[in-house]
Structures are given as structure tokens and as C-alpha cells.
Amino acid sequence: MEIEEVSLPTNNSWILKKYFLEIAILVVWADKKIEDVELNFLNRVASHLGISSDELENSLIAVEGFVLEHWQQLDYLQSKHSYEEVSEQYMNRVMRVINQNKDQLISGVRSSGELVSLLKKARSMELSDDEKSKTQELLLTVFKTIPTFVITSLPQKYLTLPVMMKILPSSFFTESLENH
Q1: What sign does the dihedral 84-71-49-31 (CA atoms) show?
Q2: How far apart are CA 29 and CA 154, in angstroms?
Q3: Whole-prediction pTM
């Protein structure tokens, strides 16, 4: 059966379409990775539902973020190899979104004197636990200025400071800390 043959009620709301899309993502994602052919399938599903590729990307980030945030409660997924695969896929998606919104992030960092100060300090010495926690909190706040992350819950247990530092492009620090 082709996707186009699936008939949906004509009065579908956006949330119902997102629900169908995210169920499709979970089904495709059951083996803990999304192959190119599966991504093509999800693109066709999104298109059939009238959902943009940006919305599909948001849904992929949302589903993967949820799984990473609740990994301990999802017994059937608990294998170190699987976690690493999911983690890598998630980080790659988030990095793409961050690179697309790099200027906005740099502006957000620059607008927080405290964050600039903490990032500068982190470049030359080890931060205390409180400083690490504060830096993580402030970076998450800056991340949440990106439209994708406004509507998608970021997995705060997963997005530790070291993970966020890996996600941010290396040029990000030079550009955000310039002129401060």
C-alpha cells in the first residue's frame, strides 16, 4: 500500500497530523537508527500529511530527545551500543539546527554577561560544580531561543555541559566571546 492511498479524515488538525508523523517516526526508529530509505519514507509521510521538512526535523528531534531523556525508564532500549547510536543521531540533528541558527546563538550568548564570563573562565581553568551547572542552565536558555527548541523539549539530563560543548561548533566560542 502506498502512503498516498492512506485515507485520513479531511478535518485533520495539526496535532493529529503530528501524532501520525511521530508514530511513524517511532515505528521507523524501533531498530534505534534511521536509514536513508526510512528517512525518505518519513519525508513522504510528512509531505502526504502536509507537514514541512522543518516540522519533520522538529519531530525527529522531539522523539529522539524524549527517548534520551527517559532512557533509564525504557527497558527495551537499554544497551550501551544502542544508546551511543541514538545519542550520535540526536547530536547530529541538534548540531544541524545549531549551525543553521549560529548567529542567533552567538547573539544570545553575548547578551548574557554571566554566560560570557563563565565560558571565558572555562577556556582557561576548571569550573566549579556550581559554575558548570550555571553554565549548562544559561546555555540551555540560549538554545531555547531557537524556534525548533522552543517547541521541542530539550532533554536536560542528556544535555550536560560536556555534551553541549561537543554540539557547539568550535568557531562558536571564538565568535561569541569576541569583543567581550
Answers
A1: positive
A2: 19
A3: 0.57
C-alpha cell at 119: 565560558
Chunked in runs of 10, what are the mean pLDDT values of the chain (180 residues)? 68 79 85 84 90 90 80 61 74 84 86 86 86 89 82 73 78 68
DSSP label at residue 145: T
Buried b (16+ CB within 10 A) or exposed e, 133-164: ebbbebbeebbeebebbeebebbeebbebebb
- DSSP secondary structure code for residue 126 in this structure: P
Instruction: Please report the pLDDT score of residue 17 as a whole number.
Output: 84
**Whole-number Cα distances in Å, 147 to 12, 124, 131:** 24, 32, 27
In this structure, how many other beta carbons lie within 10 angstroms of the beta carbon of residue 77? 16
Report residue 44 as a C-alpha cell. Answer: 513522504
Cβ(138)–Cβ(118) below 8 Å: yes
